[in-house]
Amino acid sequence: MSIKGKKEGIYRLLGSILLLISFVLGLVLGFLIANNPLLSLTLLLIAVPPFVLSILLKLEQDFFVSNAKKCLYLLLIEMIVVNSITFAFYNTSLALRTVVTSSSNILLLICWHFSLSIYKRNKKIFFICGVSYFIIQFLILLSSISVSHFFIINLTLMISVSLGLLLITSAELRMKKKGWLKYI
């Protein structure tokens, strides 16, 4: 006997994996755009702690699940401090590019974190973060037209994210239409 929605579940999982690969590719693109060891460290300090927290929350580690709001507040404070230091020591254009790149990475991370959720509120967050990510990435794409390798990497990133979002959304719509998926 087969499991209902097995094929759609695999598509959802593949979409989530594509979002995760796109997140890693986005970090690499951020390093290429930063072109400075200290700004690369800034991108790491902004993107890696939320990624680790997301993994720990997905693995349902008791300490992090029970203290998730406190951890999120600490991460927010850490991001504000790191971004403030970036603006203080670098010119506005370079610092703004770093903040925009790290913001798009955080949006993609949030989108990935909620990609397989069956809760209606989390699906709204997934959708809003996905759309916001595309808006920011489109602006980054427009600014990187003059540098061909940045443009190609950014376009590849947008295509892989759109494919991941399309896989997840189409599989969920198909499952919902057949009555196999009900949001809570």
Task: Give short descriptive properties of this protein.
184 residues; mainly alpha; globular
Give a quick rundown of the structure.
The protein is mostly helical. The protein has helices at 6-34, 37-58, 62-66, 68-89, 92-113, 120-143, 148-178.
Report what the structure shows.
The chain has 184 residues and is mainly alpha-helical. The protein has a domain at 6-44 and 91-178. 84% of the residues lie in helices and 0% in strands. It has 7 helices and no strands. It has helices at residues 6-34, 37-58, 62-66, 68-89, 92-113, 120-143, 148-178. Helix 2 (37-58) runs parallel beside helix 5 (92-113). The mean pLDDT is 84.
Q: Which spans of ≥5 residues are poorly predicted at pLDDT below 50? A: none
**Strand residues, percent:** under 5%
Radius of gyration: 18 Å
* End-to-end Cα distance: 27 Å
Query: How much is the average pLDDT?
Result: 84
DSSP summary: helix tally:
7
Q: State the share of residues found in helices, binned by percent.
A: over 70%
General shape: globular
List SSEs in N-to-C order: HHHHHHH
E-strand count = 0
Q: Largest sheet, described in full?
A: none
The assigned structural class equals: mainly alpha
